[in-house]
Automatic annotation (TrEMBL):
It comes from Flavobacterium orientale. Keywords: Transferase, Tricarboxylic acid cycle. Gene3D superfamilies: 2.20.28.60, Citrate Synthase, domain 1, Cytochrome P450-Terp, domain 2. GO terms for cellular component: cytoplasm. This is Citrate synthase. The gene is gltA.
């Protein structure tokens, strides 16, 4: 730790916390998971390695990662009765709403609460959550398409299985492109944790009441869904499509985003912490070029996104407010090139963020953090005398 961390005595129930997991520097655009730079991890590691690092604190050895992957495979079967729950949703239900419900429902089939201080129990809960969440996340897409629900294939890797679970059909073999797996590894790593953001703080505060891991993760899914948070990646694509329909007139949308009377905001721009640049956006922007070129995809929305970024970054309004592209600005372009439907973009964010949520929940419980109780400044009425109805 760089120097003594001093927190105000009230921190114990104000919602702020100490953590060893992720370090952010908003001014310098620095992001590190357990001390490793996001640039190194995104370029050299895979998603399961980074999940292990976030959750257990160290990069795994070959033996450790093989054991982790095999132990996850033990828990990828989801109780068949969960299908009765997903059958109850209309095909048009937003996947994030279905995912939040199914995640919470996992508690019904795994009622035993986890003792985070029991290493074996906690490890089993980690593997169970990593395994089952990936499966039910893809079920939300299969349901919307009217496809049969797929099972995890134990002969495939974790990220490979995402594509298998999403797109394999009983009618024949499904070939998974290694370029796609590599792109997904990078994207999931870039979304894996981000300190005390809205959804992670939600997972921590729900878990601080000693609610179970599945219930806490389900609350994080709901928080992530909002368009100001993880839902922004879907909103960015819808915005770019709108601009495309309007002849690519980016200046018109930049103007609209500055108009105080117009609720429209430039989606994928701005951040609570990064007031310089979001290092993830820099990596994803380059990955968008690389992946689309490798897949031979020519998407006009990428050029529109680049023009939009250029015009906005030259605009006094955005410069004065330190508004830069964030992690959501370019990610949807890659998801689209990988064939992921727009409605599933925030589910992709949730799959990536899962190890971060687990790691933060585990840290909060092992550190015996008190129940979350944010403070407030009361600005309401002083004491008033009650008047009966006929005197009001
Ligand atoms: C994520 O916290 C995390 O780490 C989150 C995340 C993670 O990994 O978990 O990084 C993921 O959620 C990224 C953010 C995705 N959301 C969006 O892209 C939605 C669009 N962005 C904005 O809604 C906004 O920038 C926020 C919500 C991201 C941040 O909001 P802030 O810091 O509270 O900014 P603000 O509302 O205080 O705005 C400050 C000024 C205001 O203008 P003034 O009142 O000063 O005149 O900037 C303006 C805002 O109107 N502004 C924007 C803008 N974002 C802020 N104006 C136009 N377009 C925008 N995108």
């Amino acid at each position: 730790l760089t120097g003594a961390i001093t927190l105000d005595p009230g921190y114990k129930n104000s919602g702020s916390c100490k953590s060893e997991i992720t370090f952010l520097d908003g001014e310098e655009g620095i992001l590190r998971y357990r001390g490793y730079s996001i640039e190194d991890l995104a370029a050299k590691a895979n998603f399961l390695e980074v999940s292990y690092l976030l959750i257990f604190g160290e990069l795994p050895t070959k033996t450790q990662i093989e054991k982790f992957e095999n132990d996850i495979r033990k828990y990828t079967l989801v109780n068949e009765e969960m299908k009765n729950i997903i059958d109850g949703f209309p095909k048009t239900a937003h996947p994030m709403g279905v995912l939040a419900s199914l995640t919470s429902a996992l508690t019904a089939f795994n009622p035993k609460s986890v003792n985070p201080h029991n290493e074996k129990e906690m490890y089993e809960a980690v593997c169970k959550t990593m395994g089952k969440f990936l499966v039910i996340a893809t079920w939300t897409f299969r349901k919307s398409m009217g496809y049969p629900l797929n099972y995890y294939d134990n002969t495939k890797g974790y990220v490979e299985n995402f594509m298998h679970l999403m797109y394999a059909l009983p009618t024949g073999p499904y070939k998974i492109d290694p370029i796609v797996v590599q792109a997904l590894d990078k994207l999931f790593i870039l979304h894996a944790d981000h300190e005390q953001n809205c959804s992670t703080s939600t997972v921590r505060i729900v878990g601080s009441s000693h609610a179970g891991l599945f219930a806490s993760i389900a609350s994080g899914v709901s928080a992530l869904w909002g368009p100001l948070h993880g839902g922004a990646n879907q909103a960015v694509l819808e915005m770019l499509e709108e601009i495309h329909k309007n002849g690519g007139d980016v200046a018109k949308f930049v103007l609209k985003a500055k108009d105080k009377d117009d609720p429209f905001r430039l989606m994928g721009f701005g951040h609570r912490v990064y007031k310089n640049f979001d290092p993830r956006a820099t990596i994803i922007k380059k990955a968008a070029d690389d992946v689309l070129t490798a897949l031979g995809v020519d998407d006009p929305l990428l050029d529109i996104a680049k023009q939009l970024e250029k015009v906005a970054l030259e605009d006094e309004y955005f410069k004065a407010r330190n508004l830069y592209p964030n992690v959501d600005f370019y990610s949807g372009i890659i998801y689209r090139a990988l064939g992921i439907p727009t409605e599933m973009f925030t589910v992709m964010f949730a799959i990536g963020r899962l190890p971060g949520w687990i790691a933060q929940w585990k840290e909060m419980r092992i550190n015996k953090e008190p129940i979350g109780r944010p403070r407030q400044v009361y600005v309401g009425h002083p004491l008033r005398e009650f008047k009966s109805m006929d005197k009001r």
